[in-house]
Amino acid sequence: MKLSARNQLKGKVVELRKGQTTAHVRIEIGAGAVITASITNEAVDDLGLKVGDEAWAVIKASDVMVGK
Amino acid sequence: MKLSARNQLKGKVVELRKGQTTAHVRIEIGAGAVITASITNEAVDDLGLKVGDEAWAVIKASDVMVGK
Amino acid sequence: MKLSARNQLKGKVVELRKGQTTAHVRIEIGAGAVITASITNEAVDDLGLKVGDEAWAVIKASDVMVGK
Amino acid sequence: MKLSARNQLKGKVVELRKGQTTAHVRIEIGAGAVITASITNEAVDDLGLKVGDEAWAVIKASDVMVGK
Amino acid sequence: MKLSARNQLKGKVVELRKGQTTAHVRIEIGAGAVITASITNEAVDDLGLKVGDEAWAVIKASDVMVGK
Amino acid sequence: MKLSARNQLKGKVVELRKGQTTAHVRIEIGAGAVITASITNEAVDDLGLKVGDEAWAVIKASDVMVGK
After folding, report:
1. Which residue of B lies nearest to A59 if distances are taken between CA atoms?
2. ipTM for the complex?
3. Are F52 and A52 in contact (CB under 8 A)?
4. Any CB–CB contact under 8 A between A29 and chain B?
């Protein structure tokens, strides 16, 4: 599936922490930049996500703010 | 102001396109990675945003999906 | 790519309207239910999206409210 | 109250799981399609939400991505 | 319909500006505080929204960041 | 850092509740109006957030719905 999301950043899972329903996943996208995603535990299980996996951080343009 | 957003990526504005109410801003955050933000024209004017500016892409962890 | 998003609803594009920077896409997901997505014009072009196409509406669980 | 959200899908609550602060609610909107919402436990209590309830999944158009 | 959204702020529409597909609505919620919403033109028409109307700004808790 | 977000409401933290990964923060923005934010525990720690602190609720215009 190809996605409309303007931001699809490829990287590697460097940390994965599950809560009771929500998990936090950190993806290093290169040059030391790390993106944190908050997703459901269910999604982690469905994707079989684990540290070291190649993964994408996917973000809609309307969810990005700009700071200056 | 310090922000709760887990993702604050520093870069440079490489493109800026205004529509009638909504603008698209592209920020290069290094290593060729570019983040697209869709913000109001008003915000562009308030920040005095222009191509070449140093800027941050700010994204809440709950707005990041993971693909694998 | 497999996605963490809990909601991936398959349907058919029944309407597509472009603005100056933002487009509205309506996807019929069956039984008369129609989902409206607001995405960038750029995304419409990248996907080569047109009326009649099979498509998915993808929504993060944290973006769904509940009414009763 | 009438809402601006383009997507208001009527269905029935088929699953409800509370975490420590966040709950996951699954609403069947017909034809086997199920929408998962991640809302606060507080909201579940305020709505008196339980399995079997008639409920709406409410989603802003700008929170819908398109896949093809 | 009662909503799960934690933030439902009552106020008055003080400004309304339509673009080609997206409109910006400003709601004064008292004490000089004004909330800006970006919604579809279609939603403005459906609600028959106009300056002076009593209206609610509705925001999911997961869409609020904190600054300090 | 100056932000593109149209909504930056200043107030005082009146409640703070941590879950396993996600925390709920309530900010009184005056005149009895209270905004609830759902942020990561990590963000609470990074900001050193506690009840009584002066804080801002920051919300993108595209995350605000309108009810009437």
Report:
1. B64
2. 0.92
3. no
4. yes
